[in-house]
Structure formats: structure tokens, C-alpha cells
Amino acid sequence: MRRFVLGLFCALLIAGPVAAVLPEEQLADPVLEARARAISQELRCVVCQNQSIDDSDAPLAADLRAIVRERLSAGDTDEEVMAHIVARYGNFVLLKPPLDLQTILLWSAPLLVLIPGGLGLALYLRRRSRAGAADPTPLSAEERRALAAILKTGDAP
Amino acid sequence: MSAEIGQLALILAFMLGLIQGAAPLLGAHRGDSVLMSLGRASALLQMAFVVLAFGALATAYVTMDFSVELVARHSHSTQPLPYRFAATWGSHEGSMLLWVLILALHGGAIAFFGRTLRETLQARVLAVQGMLSAAFLGFCLFTSNPFSRLSPIPLDGTELNPLLQDPGLVMHPPLLYLGYVGFSVAFSFAVAALIEGRVDAAWARWVRPWVLSAWISLTVGIALGSWWAYYELGWGGWWFWDPVENASLMPWLMGTALLHSALVLEKRGALISWTILLAILTFSLSMIGTFLVRSGVLTSVHAFAVDPERGAYILVFILIATGSALGLYAWRAPAMRTGALFSPLSREAGITLNNLFLLAATATVFLGTFYPVFIDVLSGDKISVGPPYYALTFAPLFVPLLALVAFGPMLNWKRDTVRAVLTRLRWPIIVTAVAAVIGVVVFGIADVGAALGIALGVWLIAAAFMLLARRWGIGRKGAETGRLIRTTPLAFWAVAVAHAGLGVTTIGVTAITAWTDSEVVTMVPGQTVEFAGRRITLDALGPATGPNYRADQARFRVEGRGQPFLMLSEKRFYPSSQTQTTEAGIRGEAMGNLYISVGESATLGAATVRLWWHPLVGWIWGGALIMALGGVLSLSDRRTRLAMPARKAAQARAAEAAA
């Protein structure tokens, strides 16, 4: 279920096709082209800041798009194309950093807050409500009379 | 002459800031009223001097005084007047002056409106505010002086970055800074409360309007920035997970948490030390945002001025400010009164859970933004953290949070039962289920994620309506609905409106991520393409000129779906700064935007045309504005405005006298 939800929202957020791809760059085979687009969205244009090669107008991004399409046409799998590009440019080009020893902290960030935070919250709530469950001091006779008077008139004295 | 006046005013303001940072603190400690009133006086005077300094710089810009180095670097005689004025904060030095201006205005406001506060509390708040002021004024004076002169005086300036010559520049930075700096008030109040060792509902009533106004500005500022990027950068993205965007998102997320926990503190007297911690963290994140933009640690489109020395100054200052505030917190908070009790199923508990998710979401954005820097410093390796990371971490945190939002206002304070809550929410649950089923049927199983995203938005909106319907007694026998509608307090409207706005944004985000359509074609004049159910013809392609640019302009005729209309898209060239920008043609419609941008083409007489259909994209910003409207409603509620303790006491006395 968790995997499903994750997959769902991941698809939801990265889906939007945006294109800097020029008409003459596109591959004739629509299946290959779609794969090329998907790969391009995961690769960073190294000369511009924070843009994927799919979005970027920079010449270097166009070169990388051409390499991706060349490798795909030569029959490489998606993974092989990625590996080829990473071998040349390093992990820097991956917009989704790989999960390894260096990035374990990054990837576990949500859980690192949610799990201890959730436990802390649960303990806190238990303490709060247990303290609340303890018998409150009963009203004195005078307070009870005052309360009855308030309830009767519907207004504070 | 004006530059020298500005310089002098800035120096005087800095010295007043130093006095303000020390005198009232000592005064409050000794119970010395004279020293405490010195804090008020210096805050007001300091405000006057900073306003004068800012006015001096703005005058230099508007009158094109190119002997001032800053003006010469960011203005040009052909630059239109609104952009000459807005260029005042279009540079690093100028934007820091704007930051200081807003900080001084807030300090002045506390001194002026805060007369009803407990004297020692006001003195301490002003002292903390004074320290912040002095630090940022010192930063301006020592590392980024806006008033340096140039010799020889150039004949003309080099213009402002053309990307910034846009109505967005007039509004976006001031609104963002109003947000960032507005949180400084919460920070100062938190630190002052820690020094006093005392927090009560009156404290929360005082802080909440400031948090609200900062939050409203930040919400509108972020939405405006997103819209600006959408139409200006020429490819229709609305959020890039750019470090600088993240820098504004972090205080927003934290500020949202603070807003809600301050509400619990005000209404129920609970979550005292948690609210104080959030106040400290929210402003710290605002300062980190400034550090991010100003230091160039993370380069991005926003870093129009970067300098390591400045970065170091701000970083050291953040470490001192945040470090000492947190240290004070660790020392004093455990001794603070623990607040009122509540059960695990209550509105208090619901808000605490919302805070937990917001905290986790902030941590995700924080790590995503800074991790590449950590890795670079520690091992020298370079990595990137882009949108796919946030899709896998931020989104799974935000979706349950959105689902939870509807529950909060439906829960009773103190204690509630699952059954009662579900009964109250039965109509929204039914509506949402129906929406989800229709969505899956209409869009197909392949788009199930999108259908659920839309249903989530519907859930939020339906629950907001249900909130009002319950308050109005709709469906309850004998309820005087008319009277109940009239007597619904603005603060109640605020909750419904803000939460519904969140739903609207959710629907917009879902639609644009799921159903964006795009195409790239090379077109010659007269050629027609079919796109998104329309026939788009390139009518004409030719040169055009503006006040300070030349352009290649393309005119399109769009037919199909209603009246035909024309659209323009330009590729502009600004000769004085030798830069190019793309002005996209955008046609906003109820169901979405048609977005056309022209690029260069390999062949003469033809243009590379990029076409996009962005479904419901306007809902993203519309929803944000509705959220901000919710904030405004809450702020205008009499109980928020007039809740200051002394005025309340005065009112009570007046009422007694009248009776």
C-alpha cells in the first residue's frame, strides 16, 4: 500500500511534460522518444542552475539530450543510458541523488522527524490526558450554588 | 547630497539600534522606567532615520544620480520610472536596506502600539528587536553600503537585470520581506518571554496578529513569485524547488505551524514552550533564507549579488542569534508553566499532529536544500537534489497533512470522540467518495493518482463548507439560519476560507502535474497547428521595439472553442546589458492557460514555437490568495484586533460606567 501511494504521488509530481526539446531533435519512434523524455527529466543541466536537460535551452543540455537519444537508438536500456551519463559527468547530473552511505541521512529525513516526533507526541498526549483523567477537585458547596445560579440565569454574575 | 544624508541617517540608526539593544534590557532588569522608555524612543527615532535613508536611496534612483555606484550599476536612463524606483531593492545592497526598513517599521510599531503591554515585556521585546536591527544595519554599513559614490561619474548606468524589469519586482520582494521580517516580532516576543520566564494567554493574543500579518504577506509573496517565474522564465514552470524558493517555503511551513500552535496557546493556554520554540525557529529560517540568497552558497537565478564575506557575516550572525535563543530556551523553558490538559482526540491534539507533519516537511526541504553543500564540504563530492527527491519525500508528507486539515476545525477543544467527529464529517466524506469514483471513471484507472488528488482538494473544500453549514444550523430543526449567518464571527469564516483555499491549490497542482500538454514545432508565417483542441496560426513574425529593448515578435491567431483571439509572444534583447528574455504569450481561461513561447530557429524566417496547455494552473495562485484572504479575515476579527489586555480592561471599565 505504502509503495503504491508513494508511486502515485511520485508520478503525480514529476509527470508534467515540459519541453525544451527541439522538433529536429525528436526521435521518430514515439516509444523511444517517450523514454528519452522520461530520462531527460531526471538529468540535470550542468551549466544552468536547477533545470533538467529536458527544460533547458542551453547548448550543453541539447548535447546531452542528443547523447541520450543516440544511446537509446543504439538499443541501450534506460539504466545503461543513465550509467553512461553518470560515468561521464558524475552523480552531479542526477536530480534524484542515489541512495548510498552518503545520502542515507537525506533520504531518511522525513522518517527521522516523523518517528521520534510521533513517539514524543504519543507520550506527550498520554501524559496530558492521564493527568486530565485524574479526579478533579470536586466543587465546594458554595461553588455549586454559584454554578446553579449561572445555569439558571444563563449569564455570569 | 541625498546619498550623504542617507549615509548619515544609516549610521545614526545603527547607533540607536545599539542603544535600543542594551538600555531597555538593563532597565527591565533594574525596574528603571527611564531606561525602558529609552528603548521606545530609540525604536521610533531609528525608524525615522531608516525611512530617511531609504528615501534618500529611492530619490537617487528615481532622479538617476549615477554618481552613486549602486544606481550606476542597476539603472539606466531608458529604464521606465516604475522600474527605476523598484530597482531600489533590485540589488543586493538595496534589498538589504529594504529588509532593514521593514525591521525598523516593525520595531517602531511595537514601540507605538505596544504601550498597552506590560512595561518590562515591551522593554525586553524592543531590546531584542534592537539587537536584530543593529546587526542588520551593521551588515549594511560594513559589508554592503548602498551609498558609495563613484568617480568619475559615468554618463549612464548599466541597467537592472532585464528579468527583474517586471511588475513582479515592484511587489514580490517587499511582500516576502514583510513576511520574513514580520516573524522577527514573534522571535523577539519569544526571547523576551524566556527572559521574563512568563507566558500567558495575553502574550499569545499579542503575538498572533503579528504572526498572522507576516504569514499573509509571505503567502501572497510566494504566490506572486511563483506566478512571476511562470510567465517570465518562458517555459511555464510554477515551482522549481530552487534553493531560493525553498528558502521562502521553509519559514512559510514553520510559520503555518506557529500560527496554529499560537492559537492553541491563546485559546487553551496549552503548548506554551512549543510555541516559543516555533517562534524562534520560524525567524531563524527566515534569516537562513536571507543568508541563502545573499551568500551565493547555493547559486540560483535569484543571486544577483553574491559575495562570500557577506555570507560569512550573516552566517555568524544567524549562529549567534539562533544559538543564544535556543540556549536560552533550553535553560528557561523547562521552568515554564505547563499548560492546560487535553485528551489525545481533541482540537489541541489535532493541531499538534499538524505541527509534527509541518515540521517533518520543513526538515525535508531543509535537508534537500543544504545537503549538496554538506556533502561538498565534507567529502568534496558534488550531488544534486532536484524535483524527484521532493516528489518522494515532501509529497508523501503533505498528502496525509492535507487529509488531516479537514479534521482540525471539526474537533472539539479538550476532548472528543471518533464517532462524533465522523458523524460531523459524514457529508464531506460522502461528497469526496463520490468525487473520487467519478474521477476514476472519467479519467480512467491510469490516472487514478490524479483523480485522488482532485478528490483530496474536494475533501478540503467540502469540509470547509460543512464547517459553515454546521455553524449556520443548516439541517437542524428550528435553527435561525439567517441570524446565525449574520453572527458568524470573522475568525470562523477565516478558518473555512483558508482551508478551502488550500483545497483549491491542491486541485490546481494536481491538474497541472497530471494533464499538462505540450508541443514544439518550427513554424513559418501562415502555418497552422492543431493543439489542445484549437487551431493555432502563426500570423506574423517581425521586429518590434520597446523603451529599452528590441524584440522579435510573433503574433498568433487562435481559433476553435469560442471567439478567435490573438496572442503575442516575444524574444527580447536588451542592448545595454546584452541580455535576452522570453516574453511568453499567455491566455488565461477558466479551465486553464494556453501558453506560447517563441525561441530562435535554425532556419531564417521561421520560429521555434513551444505550446503548452496548463490545466487549472490559475487555481494554484488563486487558492493561495484565498488562503491569504482567510488570514486577513482572521486579522480583522474584532477579537484578534482588540484582544490587547489593557484595551479590554478599558472597555470593561467603559461598559461598567455605561451600566
UniProtKB/TrEMBL annotation, chain A:
* Domain CcmH/CycL/Ccl2/NrfF N-terminal positions: 9-151
Q: Give the signal sequence positions.
A: 1-20
* Pfam families attached to this UniProt entry: CcmH (PF03918)
Domain of life of the organism in this record?
Bacteria
Q: Which CDD domains match?
A: CcmH_N (cd16378)
Keyword annotations for this protein, in alphabetical order, are: Cytochrome c-type biogenesis, Heme, Iron, Membrane, Metal-binding, Signal, Transmembrane, Transmembrane helix
Q: Which InterPro entries match?
A: C-type_cytochrome_biogenesis, CcmH/CycL/Ccl2/NrfF_N, CcmH/CycL/NrfF/Ccl2_sf
Keyword Nucleotidyltransferase carried by entry: no
- Does the UniProt entry include the keyword Amino-acid biosynthesis? no
Note the Gene3D superfamilies from the entry: Cytochrome C biogenesis protein
Q: Which residues cross the membrane?
A: 104-125
Q: What does this protein do?
A: Possible subunit of a heme lyase.
The record's comment on protein family reads:
Belongs to the CcmH/CycL/Ccl2/NrfF family.
| The protein's name in its UniProt record | Cytochrome c-type biogenesis protein
Originating species: Brevundimonas denitrificans
Q: What is the lineage of its organism?
A: Bacteria, Pseudomonadati, Pseudomonadota, Alphaproteobacteria, Caulobacterales
Q: Which gene encodes it?
A: cycL
UniProtKB/TrEMBL annotation, chain B:
- Residue span(s) of domain Cytochrome c assembly protein: 89-295
Q: Which domain of life is it from?
A: Bacteria
Entry keyword Membrane: yes
The main location is membrane
| Localization annotation | Cell inner membrane
Swiss-Prot/TrEMBL keywords: Cell inner membrane, Cell membrane, Cytochrome c-type biogenesis, Membrane, Transmembrane, Transmembrane helix
Stretches assigned to the Cytochrome c-type biogenesis protein CcmF C-terminal domain:
315-638
Transmembrane ranges?
Answer: 6-26, 38-62, 96-113, 125-144, 175-195, 207-229, 249-265, 272-292, 312-331, 352-374, 394-413, 425-445, 451-469, 490-515, 616-635
Q: Which Pfam families match?
A: CcmF_C, Cytochrom_C_asm
Q: Does the keyword Ligase apply?
A: no
Bilayer topology annotation: Multi-pass membrane protein
- Per its UniProt record, what PANTHER family does this chain match? CYTOCHROME C ASSEMBLY PROTEIN-RELATED, CYTOCHROME C-TYPE BIOGENESIS PROTEIN CCMF
This molecule's function is given as: Required for the biogenesis of c-type cytochromes. Possible subunit of a heme lyase.
Q: What does the similarity note say? A: Belongs to the CcmF/CycK/Ccl1/NrfE/CcsA family.
The protein in question is named C-type cytochrome biogenesis protein CcmF
This protein's species is Brevundimonas denitrificans
Source organism lineage?
A: Bacteria, Pseudomonadati, Pseudomonadota, Alphaproteobacteria, Caulobacterales
